[in-house]
C-alpha cells in the first residue's frame, strides 16, 4: 500500500499598503459595533471579579470560556400552602450528593457544587478538561415554621424543601369585629 500525498496550493494575497484603522473596520461592521455596545451596557449591570476598573473587560475580545458560565444562581420558586411552604430549586446536572441544605439562625441555605472532569486519549492528541462550579442561595425562614420538621428531597434535577408551619401558625385567622362608639 503506497501513500499518496496531495499537495494543496496555498494562495497568498498581497499585503495592503496600510492596514485599515479600527474606525474604518467599524464602519464596515455596523451590526458588530451595535452588538458590542449593547453588550457593554448590559455588562454595567453585572459585577465580576474578572474586570478592570470601570468594569471593562481585561481584553476586548470574545472569550471562548466564561468564568460566569459555571457560577450560576439556580432558579427558585417559593410557594405557600395551608400546611407550610415549599421551595423548588432547579439544579440540572447535579445529584443529591452535590447539594447541601441547612437551617441556622432563621436562614435556610441551599449550597451546591459540581466538579466535572473528562479525558480523551487518541494517538495524535490528549484532551483533559476540568470544570468546577458552585452556588449558594439563602432565604429568611418565614415566621411560624417548625424548623425541626424541615425536609428536603431531590428528583430529576429539582430540589424540593418543605418547611411545615407550626400548629400555632396553621390556626385560622381570627377576625375581630370593629364596634362603633
TrEMBL record:
Keywords: Stress response. Signal peptide: none annotated. It comes from Roseiarcus fermentans. Residues 67-181 form the SHSP domain. Gene3D superfamilies: 2.60.40.790. PANTHER family: HEAT-SHOCK PROTEIN 20 FAMILY MEMBER. It holds the Pfam family HSP20. This is Heat shock protein Hsp20. It comes from the Bacteria. Belongs to the small heat shock protein (HSP20) family.
